[in-house]
Design goal:
Elements (H helix, E strand, L loop, with lengths): L3 E8 L3 E3 L25 E2 L7 E2 L1 H8 L5 E7 H6 L14 E4 L14 E4 L3 H12 L3 E4 L2 H9 L5 E7 L7 E2 L10 E10 L2 E9 L1
Parallel strand pairs: 1-8, 1-9, 5-6, 5-8, 6-7
Antiparallel strand pairs: 2-10, 3-4, 9-12, 11-12
Amino acid sequence: MGKVILDISMSLDGFIAGVNDNQKQPLGEGGELIQNWLFSGDQPSRYNEFFKLSAINKEIFDGPVPMTGAMVVGRRTFDIVNGWGGSHPIQDVPIFIVTHEAPVSYVEDKTSFTFVTSGVEDAIVQAKEAANGKNVSIGTASIAQQCIKAGLLDEMHLHVAPILMGKGIRLFDQIGSEQIKLEPQEVTDGSNVTHLKYKLLY
């Protein structure tokens, strides 16, 4: 049975983007430093040459892709990245977008999009069905927060950049007041990033 896994880059002080994120600067002001590890190497990803990584970072980035069967994101992220122009960087993986209302029109090229208006729980159910035993990847803060509050998230794969943003969009802002214990799974010292894996213990 596949897992629901948050896979996301963040600053040491817990931000996944800077302030004023928009279509012209999807990661906000200075936010590109959070994801610098994806572009600071000389080895292209096996799945998209857009990403240039060090050897160790390539292993961390490429490793989960074959076991990823679906993704779930929020509507705000979908709009900010303009639907990835119809093709997500990791192709052939269906994406489920949690939204209050589906857009009237959007571009769909190499990625199939499904807009779920019935909440994050239903989006996860649909994504798991589409994943067919593979993992469901969560890559946005709002959906991660909703999944944590609902007890739907199994693991977190965090890529921590050596930077203090100070302000921006926090990853763990709205997760409720209950403590959630984490079981450390793996720590990898990458190039200009530390990769952390945790299992959530509800």
